[in-house]
C-alpha cells in the first residue's frame, strides 16, 4: 500500500479505533447505559427513535436557518450603512461592538418572557448570535478595497452604484463568507441553548427530556444528529463560497 | 536652471506650433497634511506642457513626488497651488479620455481578463458589440487572446501588465498615463514590454506620460525625458531624445543613447552629492 492510500485511510482508522475502544470500555467496566452508553446502544436508540429525532431535528434546523437568514438580512444593510456613512460609523458601530460583548445566550430566559413559548425566542437568540460575526466581517470586507482600485473606478468616472456593484461587493464576498461560517456554527449552538431554556420541541428539548428520564442513549443520538446538522450547514456555506469566491486574495 | 536641450524631438508626431497642449501645468504645487500636523511639501512648483503625440518620460529618485504629479495630471488629486489645463480647459476631475496604467496592474481578481478589459465599456456604456470587438483586438495585439477567459491570478506579472494596458486602451483614450508600469517586473520582461509598448504606441499614435525608475526605459520610450529633483519634486531638466524610431533592442547600443544616459545620470548624481 502506498503513502497516499495510507493517508486517506488514516482518519477513518482513527475513528474506528476510538469507537471500538469506547465500546470495549463500556462493556469491560460494565458502565450502565444511563451514565455512558456504548456506540452500539446509541445506534440502536437512534434507529428506535428515528421519527422523533427527525421531527425535532426539523424544528431545530428551521429555527437555525430562519435566525441565520434574518441576521443576514439585518446585518448586510447595516454593514453597508456603516461602511459608507461616516456618521453611522462613529455613532452606530461602537454601540454595536459594545453590544457584541453581551453574552447573548444569557438573554434566552428574557426572550421567553418577552415573546412567550413560540419559536420566536429561539429564532431571536439565533439572530443575536449570528448578527455580529456577519456584520463585523462585512464591514471589514467593504473597507478592504485597495485604494488603487477605487482610483481606477474614479478615473473612469464610475458612479457610486457601479463602484458598489463592480468593486465593493465582490471585494467583500470573501469576508462575508468568513462571517457566515462563524455565524452558522454559533447559530446551531444558539438554537439548542434557547431550546434548553423553554421549548416543547427541537433537539435541545429532546436532549433535556431524555436526559432527565435517564434515556441517555437517545440524548447521545440527538447530539449526533445536532453535530451532523452543524457540519452539514458549515459545508453548505463552504460549497457556496467555493462557487462564488473563485479567486485567491 | 533647466538643463534643456528640448526643441528638436517634440515634433516626433504631428504637433504644429499652434496645437493645443494635451496638458499644461503652471506653478503646480502639492502639499499634504502631514501625520504630525506639519504639512509635507511633496511637489513643485512644476511647469509642464505635453503636446499631442508626444511620449514624455519622467525619472526621479524615490519619494520625490512622481506619483503625486501623475495623480494631479490625472485629476485624481486636488492641487494645492498653480493651474492645470487639459486640452486648453482647466480641470479638477478625471476624464475618461485619459487612460491610466497603475504601477500594480489593479486587475479585479474576481473577473476574467476579458471582463477586466471591458470594465471601461461597462462604466462608459459603450456599445457592447463594438467594445467586445475592440477588446479582442487589443488582447490579440498583446498576445493575450488565449487568456481572455482566465482569471488574472493565472497570468504572469508581465501578462497582467499587458491586460492592464488593454483595459486602459479600451475606451480609446487620447492620452495615456503610466506610473512605473513595469516597476514590479524583472529586467528582461521589463525591456521586452518596454519595446512592445514603444511599438504599440507607435502604431496607436497616442500622447503618453510615463513615470519610471529606469533611465534606459525612459530613453527607450520617450521623446523627452524629464528629470525630477528630490522632494519637493521639481523638474530640473527636460532632455530631448533625438533617437530614430522605431526603437529596438539595438537602440540601447546607439552612441547617442549612451550620451543621453550619461547626461541624465550626471544630473541625478551631481545633484545628490551637493
Ligand atoms: N496621500 C498622501 N498623504 C500624505 N503624504 C503623501 C501622500 N501621498 C504622497 N505623500 C508624500 O509625498 C511624497 C511624494 O510621494 P510620491 O508617491 O509622489 O513619490 P514617488 O516619487 O512616486 O515615489 P516612488 O518612486 O517611491 O513611487 C512622499 O514623501 C510621500 O510621503
Ligand atoms: Mg510612485
Model description:
The complex is a heterodimer of chains A (249) and B (274). Chain A has 249 residues and is mainly α. Chain A folds into two domains: 1-31; 36-244, MetI-like (MetI-like fold, Orthogonal Bundle). Chain A has helices at 3-28, 39-48, 50-84, 86-100, 108-115, 120-143, 147-155, 160-197, 203-212, 216-244. Chain A is flat. The mean pLDDT of chain A is 90. Chain B has 274 residues and is of the alpha/beta class. Chain B has a domain at 1-91 and 205-274: Rossmann fold. Chain B is built from seven helices and ten strands. In chain B, strands 6-7-8-3-9-10 form a six-stranded mixed β-sheet, sandwiched between helices. In chain B, a hairpin with a 2-residue loop joins strand 4 and strand 5 (89-90). In chain B, helix 2 crosses helix 3 and helix 6 (215-221) packs across helix 7 (255-273). Chain B is globular, with a radius of gyration of 19 Å. The two termini of chain B are 15 Å apart. Classes of the chains: A mainly alpha (249), B alpha/beta (274). Magnesium ion binds at residues 66-67 of chain B.
Write the topology of this structure.
The complex is a heterodimer of chains A (249) and B (274).
Chain A: H1 3-28, H2 39-48, H3 50-84, H4 86-100, H5 108-115, H6 120-143, H7 147-155, H8 160-197, H9 203-212, H10 216-244
Chain B: E1 23-32, E2 40-50, E3 55-59, H1 66-74, E4 81-86, E5 89-90, E6 98-101, H2 113-124, H3 128-141, H4 157-170, E7 175-179, H5 187-204, E8 207-212, H6 215-221, E9 224-228, E10 235-240, H7 255-273
Parallel strand pairs in B: 3-8, 3-9, 6-7, 7-8
Antiparallel strand pairs in B: 1-2, 1-4, 4-5, 9-10
Helix pairs in contact in B: 2-3, 2-4, 3-4, 6-7
The structure holds adenosine-5'-triphosphate and magnesium ion.
Amino acid at each position: 500500500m502506498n503513502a497516499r492510500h495510507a493517508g486517506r485511510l488514516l482518519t477513518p482508522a482513527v475513528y474506528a479505533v476510538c469507537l471500538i475502544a469506547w465500546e470495549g470500555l463500556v462493556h469491560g467496566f460494565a458502565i450502565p447505559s444511563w451514565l455512558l452508553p456504548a456506540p452500539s446502544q446509541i445506534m440502536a436508540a437512534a434507529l428506535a427513535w428515528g421519527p422523533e429525532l427527525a421531527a425535532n431535528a426539523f424544528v431545530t434546523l428551521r429555527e437555525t436557518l430562519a435566525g441565520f437568514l434574518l441576521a443576514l438580512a439585518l446585518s448586510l444593510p447595516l454593514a453597508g450603512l456603516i461602511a459608507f456613512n461616516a456618521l453611522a460609523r462613529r455613532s452606530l458601530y461602537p454601540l454595536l461592538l459594545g453590544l457584541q460583548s453581551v453574552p447573548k445566550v444569557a438573554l434566552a430566559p428574557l426572550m421567553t418572557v418577552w415573546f412567550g413559548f413560540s419559536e420566536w425566542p429561539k429564532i431571536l437568540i439565533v439572530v443575536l448570535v449570528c448578527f455580529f460575526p456577519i456584520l463585523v466581517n462585512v464591514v471589514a470586507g467593504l473597507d478592504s478595497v485597495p485604494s488603487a482600485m477605487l482610483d481606477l473606478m474614479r478615473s473612469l468616472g464610475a458612479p457610486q452604484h457601479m463602484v458598489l456593484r463592480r468593486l465593493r461587493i465582490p471585494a467583500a464576498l470573501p469576508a462575508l463568507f468568513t462571517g457566515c461560517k462563524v455565524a452558522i456554527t454559533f447559530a446551531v449552538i444558539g438554537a439548542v441553548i434557547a431550546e434548553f431554556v423553554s421549548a416543547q420541541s427541537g433537539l435541545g428539548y429532546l436532549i433535556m427530556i431524555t436526559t432527565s428520564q435517564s434515556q441517555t442513549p437517545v440524548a447521545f443520538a440527538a447530539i449526533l444528529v445536532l453535530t451532523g446538522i452543524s457540519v452539514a450547514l458549515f459545508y453548505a456555506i463552504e460549497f457556496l463560497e467555493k462557487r462564488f469566491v473563485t479567486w485567491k486574495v | 536652471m533647466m538643463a534643456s536641450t528640448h526643441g528638436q524631438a517634440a515634433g516626433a508626431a504631428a504637433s504644429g506650433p499652434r496645437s493645443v497642449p494635451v496638458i499644461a501645468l503652471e506653478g503646480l504645487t502639492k502639499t499634504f497634511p502631514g501625520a504630525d500636523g506639519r504639512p509635507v511639501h511633496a511637489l513643485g512648483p512644476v511647469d509642464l506642457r505635453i503636446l499631442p503625440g508626444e511620449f514624455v518620460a519622467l525619472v526621479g529618485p524615490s519619494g520625490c513626488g512622481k506619483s503625486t504629479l501623475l495623480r494631479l495630471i490625472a485629476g485624481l488629486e486636488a492641487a494645492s497651488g498653480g493651474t492645470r489645463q487639459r486640452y486648453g480647459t482647466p480641470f479638477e476631475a478625471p476624464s475618461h479620455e485619459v487612460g491610466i496604467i497603475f504601477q500594480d496592474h489593479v486587475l479585479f481578481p474576481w473577473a476574467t481578463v476579458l471582463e477586466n478589459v471591458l470594465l471601461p465599456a461597462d462604466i462608459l456604456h459603450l456599445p457592447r458589440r463594438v467594445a467586445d470587438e475592440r477588446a479582442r483586438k487589443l488582447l490579440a495585439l498583446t498576445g493575450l487572446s488565449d487568456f481572455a477567459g482566465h482569471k488574472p491570478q493565472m497570468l504572469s506579472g508581465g501578462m497582467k501588465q499587458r491586460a492592464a494596458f488593454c483595459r486602459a486602451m479600451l475606451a480609446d483614450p487620447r492620452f495615456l498615463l503610466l506610473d512605473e508600469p513595469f516597476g514590479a517586473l524583472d529586467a528582461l520582461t521589463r525591456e521586452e514590454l518596454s519595446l512592445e509598448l514603444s511599438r504599440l504606441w507607435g502604431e496607436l499614435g497616442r500622447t503618453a506620460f510615463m513615470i519610471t525608475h529606469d533611465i534606459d526605459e525612459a530613453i527607450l520610450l520617450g521623446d523627452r525625458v524629464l528629470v525630477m529633483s528630490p522632494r519637493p519634486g521639481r523638474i530640473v531638466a527636460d532632455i530631448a531624445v533625438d533617437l530614430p524610431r522605431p526603437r529596438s533592442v539595438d537602440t540601447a547600443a546607439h552612441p547617442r543613447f549612451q550620451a543621453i544616459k550619461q547626461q541624465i545620470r550626471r544630473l541625478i548624481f551631481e545633484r545628490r552629492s551637493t
